[in-house]
Design brief:
The structure holds two protein chains of two kinds.
Chain A lengths: L5 E6 L2 H5 L2 H14 L6 E6 L11 E4 L3 E3 L7 H11 L24 H4 L17 H6 L4 H9 L2 H11 L11 H10 L6 E6 L8 H8 L1 H15 L3 E6 L4 H16 L15 E6 L9 H8 L23 E5 H13 L1 H5 L9 E8 L5 E6 L4 H8 L9 E6 L5 E4 L9 H6 L8 E6 L4 H15 L5 H18 L7 H15 L3 H5 L2 H19 L13 E4 L9 H5 L5 E4 L2 E5 L9 H5 L5 E4 L1
Parallel strand pairs in A: 1-2, 5-6, 5-8, 6-7, 9-13
Antiparallel strand pairs in A: 1-3, 3-4, 9-10, 11-12, 11-13, 14-17, 15-16
Chain B lengths: L11 H15 L6 H12 L4 H11 L3 H10 L11 E6 L2 H5 L2 H12 L12 E6 L11 E3 L2 E3 L7 H9 L2
Parallel strand pairs in B: 1-2
Antiparallel strand pairs in B: 1-3, 3-4
Classes of the chains: A alpha/beta, B alpha+beta.
The structure holds flavin mononucleotide and FE2/S2 (inorganic) cluster.
The site of FE2/S2 (inorganic) cluster has 12 residues of chain B, from helix 5.
Chain lengths: 598, 165
């Protein structure tokens, strides 16, 4: 391998690709060449660094200097100053608001200080399209160890002792699941990876697949050895084109290196992996539906038992784990179960990856030791709430989860504490909401999602969630009736008790949890016909502040339905009957003379 | 069932030949139907009845089964899409940051609803889930191009760019 004096890492995850990182790479290539640096400096296209809100991100080693919000125009300066003359481009350095003269190496940036990277170990560090880079960072070492030094039972025992629990939502102990699958006697077994990432506001699994696909392949192969399977399937969303492409490349490379296929490492163990693309159905993230979908049918779930470990894909014993669960496996094997179990809390070992979004300064991907408090996540890692607004609640678990209100901000994040609060760990979606978000509206958002995604097989889910949504639409539409809240509660309980699969059983959670902490908000909608956060349109009025109105007429000219009247010298007025509450007038008024009255 | 526009234009044979090749390729694969549908949609842009029939025959499954699968998954479309496919992210992060206003603006400017295509065939409008760019929320995607940190006022300008071609 050639020796380079500096490495320029450019993020090519989905977030940064969307904000022009391919163009930035082109510019680097151009200016490195122009300055004859292309033999000294290497460009590495990496996966996600995590700090998506500040993208596109460029990190330059050996200094570890992290440049954020880099524009194609900035590249010339970075090459000429940093790479040629050795002077930092201070204005682009991450978190350099206070530290004007020194480099802040990447580990010191606030966003990364409290994180611990196990599953994301190599995301943003290596080029995901190069198996050599993965191998250079101890890749496939765990597989070699397992195949040459360990018996299948010992592998399972190691995973059991590590305390790893499923990262796909349920938190089932992974080692025990492997043991069940290993015990089933059959000549044909399967290993599946759930990369269907259904939570509509999250992208942890996607980032792992885009940033470090080999770790998942290595882990699935280890799993195949442990349970006695020779075929694996990765079920990945078709909406993830970059992940699909990199997985395909990784599978191809692993085959060429003899790390997949026949007689791996010269042993008599053989294992192969195929990709299967999902086609946009949330319910296919549920394990039985996922397997039905791989078989080529409508992805409808079926009752359990029999559990997949006994009768799964093509009727054969099957092990199914989530992407992030797998991504932890090679490191557990390499560093040992005790090392992993030393991270986190008593009942939740290791780390958890979250995709944090919504009303937060540092939107992005983060990995924290279990037991970190929500406060640390929001204020230390996330950099707080933008525009000086007040934190109201955090939503975890997506459409199956619930809210953690501001009063519980010091709760440590673990499987069991979150369930106690009426939420759940979920797969890692973490949406931060501020005072401007209406909790009834959020509950409605998730219910719309489940109604849309209900597969229709069982009536409680198909009809029950629809009834709940109708009530919520009534409430947010200003037509709520006394007793509506109670009806929601009864419906929720019945659906939870009688739905066929996890989708229906958890669908009422967003409503139940917002009711638990924000009941007064529901009541304000129903009784007073008011939306305290000023979100639900039908209950809003736009009003002109006569004192402030300078009678310029800009609002009237911009109103799409011509419902604002007035003239020079006479303050303007909005006809509430005609107003469609689009908010254009408020946006356009240069004197802030229009306000929302909730 | 939206079959117009697929038989009148050139290259029909070319496309059919490709379809047959795909069917051949997957014929002996377990669970072949969904991969075949994915690739067929790539060729035709959508999955008209005539194509579904050929797939049913080729893989030796009933047309009901094929239709059942096509209608179950949102990725598969029975109708043609616009030259420019607009997808508005309605994921949670985008929603809390006002994706709805963006969607409303698009519907107003295009004069169509979600799931529809403009009469001139230029734009189609759909909602989608998190595209993984939550840091830029709210976002929309037009074909493969992503637009982030949007406010409703930018929509007109973006559409104009495509109208001019
Ligand atoms: C409606 C529904 C959607 C689900 N979606 C996902 C998903 O997108 N990704 C995932 O890994 N698990 C999902 N699960 C959980 C899976 O059924 C399964 O428990 C999990 O993939 C097992 O892996 P783990 O033990 O490694 O967590 C979903 C479950 C339900 C009920
Ligand atoms: S929610 Fe829209 S990009 Fe993630």
């Amino acid at each position: 391998m050639e020796i380079y004096r500096a490495h320029v890492l450019v993020c090519t995850g989905t977030g940064c690709t969307s904000s022009q990182s391919p163009k930035i790479i082109e510019e680097f290539e151009k200016y490195l060449k122009a300055n004859k640096l292309d033999n000294e400096v290497k460009i590495v296209k990496t996966g996600c660094f995590g700090l998506c809100a500040e993208g596109p991100i460029v990190v330059i080693y050996p200094e570890g200097a992290m440049y954020t919000m880099v524009k194609p125009e900035d590249v010339k300066e970075i090459v000429e100053e940093h790479l040629l003359k050795g002077r930092l481009v201070k204005r682009l350095l991450a978190g350099n608001k206070e530290l004007k003269d020194s480099v802040k190496p990447i580990e010191q940036v606030e966003f990364f200080k409290k994180q611990k990277r196990v599953a994301l170990r190599l995301c943003g560090v290596i080029n995901p399209e190069s198996i050599d880079e993965y191998i250079a960072f101890d890749g496939y070492k765990a597989l070699a160890k397992v195949l040459t030094e360990m018996k299948p039972e010992e592998v399972i025992d190691e995973i059991k002792r590590s305390g790893l629990r499923g990262r796909g939502g349920g938190g089932f102990p992974t080692g025990i699941k492997w043991e069940f699958a290993a015990r089933s006697q059959d000549t044909e077994k399967y290993v599946c990876c759930n990369a269907d990432e259904g939570d509509p506001g999250a992208f942890m699994d996607r980032s792992i697949l885009e940033g470090d696909p080999h770790s998942v392949l290595e882990a699935m192969t280890i799993a195949g050895y442990a349970i006695g399977a020779s075929q694996g399937y990765v079920y990945v969303r078709a909406e993830y084109p970059i992940a699909v492409k990199r997985l395909n490349i990784a599978i191809q490379q692993a085959k060429e290196y003899g790390l997949l296929g026949k007689n791996i490492f010269g042993t008599d163990f053989s294992f192969d992996i195929e990709l299967r693309l999902g086609a946009g159905a949330f319910v296919c993230g549920e394990e039985t539906a996922l397997m039905t979908s791989i078989e080529g049918h409508r992805g409808e779930p079926r009752p359990r038992p029999p559990f997949p470990a006994v009768k799964g894909l093509f009727g054969k014993p099957t092990l199914l784990n989530n992407v992030e669960t797998y991504a932890n496996i090679p490191t557990i094997i390499r560093n040992g179960a005790e090392w992993f179990a030393s991270i986190g809390t008593e009942k939740s070992k290791g780390t958890k990856v979250f995709a944090m979004g919504g009303k937060i300064n540092n939107t992005g991907l983060l990995e924290i030791p279990m037991g970190t408090t929500l406060r640390e996540v929001i204020y230390d890692i996330g950099g707080g709430i933008p525009n000086g607004k007040k934190f109201k609640a955090a939503q975890t678990g997506g459409p199956s989860g619930g809210c953690i209100p501001a009063s519980k901000i010091d709760t440590p994040i673990e499987y069991d504490t979150l369930v106690e609060l009426g939420s759940m760990m979920g797969s890692g979606g973490l949406i931060i909401m501020d005072e401007d978000n209406c909790m009834v509206d959020i509950a409605k958002f998730f219910l719309e999602f489940t109604v849309d995604e209900s597969c229709g097989k069982c009536p409680p889910c198909r009809i029950g969630t629809k009834r709940m949504l109708e009530i919520l639409e009534r409430i947010t539409g200003g037509k709520g009736e006394e007793g509506d809240v109670e009806k929601l509660e009864i419906l929720a309980k019945n659906i939870k008790a009688s739905a066929l699969c996890g989708l229906g059983q958890t669908a009422p959670n967003p409503v139940l949890s917002t009711l638990r902490y924000f009941r007064d908000e529901y009541e304000a909608h129903v009784r007073d016909k008011k939306c305290p956060a000023g979100v639900c349109k039908s209950m809003l009025n736009y009003i002109v502040d006569e004192q402030r109105c300078k009678c310029c007429g800009i609002c009237a000219r911009n109103c799409p339905v011509n419902c604002i009247s007035g003239q020079k010298g006479v303050p303007y007025k909005i006809d509430q009957e005609k107003c469609i509450k689009c908010g254009t007038c408020l946006e356009k008024c240069p004197f802030k003379a229009i306000f929302k009255n909730a | 069932m939206g079959e117009q526009g697929c038989c009148c234009c050139g290259g029909v044979d070319e496309r059919e030949k490709k379809l047959q090749e795909i069917i051949e390729k997957y014929k002996n694969t377990k669970g072949a139907l969904i991969p075949v549908l994915h690739e067929a949609q790539e060729i035709y842009g959508y999955l008209p009845m005539s194509v579904q029939k050929k797939i049913a025959e080729g893989l030796n499954v009933s047309l009901e089964e094929v239709y059942g699968v096509v209608t179950f998954y949102t990725q598969f479309s029975l109708n043609p899409k616009g030259k420019y496919q607009i997808q508005v992210c309605l994921g949670t992060a985008c929603y809390v940051k006002g994706a709805n206003q963006i969607l409303e603006k698009l519907q107003e400017k295009l004069g169509i609803h979600v799931g529809e295509c403009t009469e001139d065939g230029l734009f189609s409008l759909d909602g989608c889930r998190c595209i993984g760019a939550c840091g830029l929320a709210p976002v929309i995607m037009i074909n493969d191009e992503v637009y982030g940190r949007l406010v409703p006022d930018q929509i007109e300008g973006i559409l104009d760019k495509y109208r001019k071609g």
